[in-house]
Amino acid sequence: MYSLLSGLWKYLFSKNEYFILILGLDGAGKTTLLEQIKTKYTKVPGLPPHKIIPTVGLNIAKTQYEEIKLTYWDLGGQSQLRSIWNKYFTDVHAVIYVVDSNDKERFTESKDELESIVCDPKLKGVPLLLFFNKQDLPDSESIEFLTSVFKSVINNQSLSSSEDGTTISRNVQLQSLIASKGEGISEGIKWLADNLRKNARTIEKTDY
Ligand SMILES: Nc1nc2c(ncn2[C@@H]2O[C@H](COP(=O)(O)OP(=O)(O)OP(=O)(O)O)[C@@H](O)[C@H]2O)c(=O)[nH]1
Ligand SMILES: [Mg+2]
Fold first, then answer.
1. Which residues bind Mg(2+) (predicted)?
2. For the chain, what are the domain ranges?
3. How many Cβ atoms from other residues are within 10 Å of residue 72's Cβ?
4. In angstroms, rounded to a whole number, what is the distance separating the alpha carbons of residues 2 and 4?
5. Could you report the per-residue pLDDT of 92-130, keeping only the tens digit for each?
6. ipTM tops the 0.90 cut
7. pLDDT tens digits, residue range 151-206?
8. Who's near 42: CB < 8 A, 6+ residues apart?
9. Is 27 labeled as ligand-binding?
């Protein structure tokens, strides 16, 4: 009886809580985004951009968005840190991937990393919000251009195959972002929240 009640409690309690992983190359603006998310959706303002240093561990933000709880995990993007990204894949409901729209030399590298993320079977069907950041910089590439660059990954992976051979659709959204000014965040998070409410996968593990 106790286990039944505690299971029900856990189910009710965890139903409206979702975990979101923020990934992307080093310097893309992930932590800047996370700190702006804190400013927008918590009572404690996030750090200003000039106080943010490169991430080596994990930054976390717990937020309330309307009736749901969204917890964000921001990982370091330096190449030697990317090997731990997939340790988090089984526990997330959505992925945010941040691209530096000004870092033209590394678009291919960024695209390759995104490809390995979306190809991972542990993330089958998980919604993907792709932020094209630093749209304030005059030399940044346009959303149209970036869409054409990243299109092959998105098109191949908007449908992802599961282990049993069935096909599971993945919802993908592309969004312009100026993380340092908080522009584009509300639109992206609204899309994510709408998706999570409708389609979130069930994750067994709920103790963090
Ligand atoms: N101009 C401009 N600069 C930005 C923007 N977002 C972030 N930056 C700058 O980009 C640099 C890297 O930002 P971070 O947020 O530390 O990047 P990160 O993706 O967390 O990097 P790692 O932690 O190393 O993976 C910092 O100098 C930020 O101020 C933006 O929208 N516009
Ligand atoms: Mg960081």
1. 31, 55
2. 15-199
3. 24
4. 5
5. 999 999 999 999 999 999 999 999 999 999 999 999 999
6. yes
7. 888 775 554 545 555 555 789 999 999 999 999 999 999 999 999 998 777 775 54
8. 61, 62, 63, 64
9. yes
In tens, the pLDDT along 30-51 reads 999 999 999 999 999 999 999 9
Q: What are phi and psi of 183, to 5 degrees?
A: -85, 125
* Residue 156 Cα to ligand 1 middle (Å): 28
Per-chain residues with Cβ under 5 A from ion ligand 2: 30-31, 55
- Which ligand ends up closest to the CA of 29? 1
Take residue 126 and report the two structure tokens written for it: 């998980």
The superfamily in CATH containing domain 15-199 is P-loop containing nucleotide triphosphate hydrolases (3.40.50.300)
**pLDDT grade, residue 22 (50/70/90)?**
very high
CA distance 145 to 138: 14
